[in-house]
Amino acid sequence: MSGGSVIGDDDQLDSGIIDIEEIQAHGIGASDIAKLRNSNIVTIHTLIGTTTRKLLKIKGFSDAKVEKIREAAKKMLPTSNGFMTASELGQVRKRCVRISTGSKQLDACLNGGFQTMSISEVYGEFRCGKTQLAHTMAVICQLPKEMGGAEGKVAYIGKSPSFTTVTLLTSIDTEGTFRPERIAEVAERFGGQFTPHLRGQSLTTKMMQELTSNEMQMEMLENLAIQFATNEYRLLIIDSVMALYRTDFVGRGELADRQAALGAFLRRAAQMAEEFNICVFMTNQVMSDPGASAIFAGVDGRKPAGGHVLAHASTTRLLLRKGRGEERVAKVVDSPDCPEREATYIITTGGINDPDKA
Question: What is the model's pTM?
Fold first, then answer.
């Protein structure tokens, strides 16, 4: 892998992303920096957020060398001690962008859409529009900000062996439901109003590796760090986050291992969301809890998979369910800045839309 910087000096000041090459000025050798890059540690924030135990696994890294590297990184990051004032945090959060869902009603519930620098999760049973919402946002993200977009690229990692994507994407489609033709249909709805550097590229194809295990899912997430460090991406779609964990870990005996692996994956996704100013949008499956509805009348017996580990990792959480006729209902279950409320939407050829657009 080349040792060159992936982001320019001017972009570093605007984005807050500091390339790993910068620690060379603090006495760290080029060979050690190359080893860090090969381990997908490409920025100073990522380096500081990496545990000492993980750094020691890099070939040739001793305790003394790891300590020297970490000290060099801390000199470059004033907030490396973990504290900043509320006003400083406010300045950082001014970089946040809200990405429209395609439905004005749903956007209103979310105060404008799903925001970057956080993890958002939608869960529900089959045929309620989870993947359709992901497809719609994959297109809208590329639009100008005045149209509800984020003027950025999208990541969408796939399971299908003939999976096609990127420029628009790099997807984590663990259910094999990503369809390039749906992206084309949704794009037609917006009349090709993409930002200049993305126009005509939304269906650029690239063969992707098939996802067959949760370990590969984690590896592909780590590999995205190099692309995210370019500051060109604004959305990472994971569809669905629990699919591989539910098949790789079976029974209560493996539950602790599953939750530990899931927690590590979500922690890395949250780090990427904050550092690279991206919206991590996850779809999730549900599981039945017959006892809940049997004991308490009116209680929904469908629970999101993933348990408390996933619940705590999600900043904004939506429940999607079927409504009357072709309508679907989205309910804000958890959010730090949105009250609990509902919105109605439909699934059209052009993606998610309001019921009056049927």
Answer: 0.84
Arithmetic mean of pLDDT, 25-30:
92
pLDDT grade for 341, boundaries at 50, 70 and 90: very high
Give the model's pLDDT for residue 190.
77
Which residues contact residue 88 at a Cβ distance below 8 angstroms, ignoring those fewer than 6 apart?
A: 79
Cβ–Cβ under 8 Å, residues 317 and 77: no
Q: What is the 3-state secondary structure (H, E, C) of the chain?
A: CCCCCCCCHHHHHHHCCCEHHHHHHHCCCHHHHHHHHHCCCCEHHHHHHCCHHHHCCCCCCCHHHHHHHHHHHHHHCHHHHCCCCHHHHHHHHCCCCEECCCCHHHHHHCCCCEECCEEEEEECCCCCCHHHHHHHHHHHCCCCHHHCCCCCEEECEECCCCCECCCCCCCEECCCCCCHHHHHHHHHHCCCCCCCCCCCCCCCCCECCCCCCHHHHHHHHHHHHHHHCCCCEEEEEECCCCHHHHHHCCCHHHHHHHHHHHHHHHHHHHHHHHHHCCEEEEEECEEECHHHHHHCCCCCCEEECCHHHHHHHCCEEEEEEECCCCCEEEEEEECCCCCCCEEEEEEECCEEECHHHC
User: Model confidence over 244-295: pLDDT tens digits?
Assistant: 999 999 999 999 999 999 999 999 999 999 999 999 999 998 987 766 555 5
Give me the chain's average pLDDT, please. 82
